[in-house]
Design a protein that fits this description.
It is built from 6 helices and 7 strands. With about 200 residues, the chain is α/β, with parallel strands linked by helices. It has a single domain, classed as Maf protein. Strands 1, 2, 3, 4, 5, 6 and 7 form a 7-stranded mixed beta sheet that branches. The chain is globular. The termini are close together.
Length: about 200
């Protein structure tokens, strides 16, 4: 199996662990950017792909190696598909973010939502930029349940299940989550260009 090294353009260790475990299966070694560099990229884009691109380009330029960035969020239908790209900025921590969503949905029967992820992989040597996206549909629970995962996982029930991602654990999430779907699409692209076997 080939070994392909990529810098993960983020300071989010939870995302790093999740994506690293997925890509490791196909020989991609993800290097945690925050352990090597100090960089804070302002997310000024108006979409997930735009923010992912901003981060991938900045980290790749700093490190001089391919960089993979993720931008992701949750979109709730009853809230006009918000918070979207502002998901991580909704409150100061995961518990407060979950509480805010639940508070906004009090009295609403429409719990439909989806997780969205966009990946940007930038190759600084030749300027190539690859984009993939992933979606995972579900509904918002009535209260946070479960200890696994991070972010909105304690209130996100994926379609076809009756438990939250925080209850279902890593095995299920690694198969159907938004980041899993985006990762599989990226693996297909890497395989097509013979960067992995």
């Amino acid at each position: 199996m080939k070994n392909f090294r990529v810098l993960f353009a983020s300071r989010n260790r939870h995302k790093f662990r999740e994506i690293s475990a997925l890509l490791k299966k196909v020989g991609v070694e993800l290097v945690f950017g925050a352990e090597r560099y100090s960089l804070d990229v302002e997310e000024t884009g108006t979409s997930y792909p735009q923010n992912a691109i901003l981060k991938a380009l900045a980290w790749a330029e700093l490190a001089g190696m391919p960089a993979l960035a993720d931008d992701s969020g949750i979109e709730v239908r009853a809230l006009g598909w918000e918070p979207g790209i502002y998901s991580s900025r909704l409150a100061s921590n995961d518990s407060l973010r979950n509480f805010t969503i639940l508070k906004k949905l009090e009295g609403s029967y429409d719990r439909c939502c989806r997780y969205v992820a966009a990946f940007a992989l930038f190759f600084p040597k030749d300027g190539r930029l690859w984009l993939t996206e992933g979606y995972c549909w579900g509904e918002i629970a009535t209260e946070p349940v479960g200890q696994c995962g991070f972010g909105y996982d304690p209130i996100f029930i994926p379609s076809g299940y009756k438990k939250t991602f925080a209850e279902l654990g890593d095995e299920v999430k690694a198969r159907i989550s938004h980041r899993a779907v985006a990762s599989y699409a990226l693996m297909d692209m890497l395989a097509e260009y013979s960067m992995i076997e």
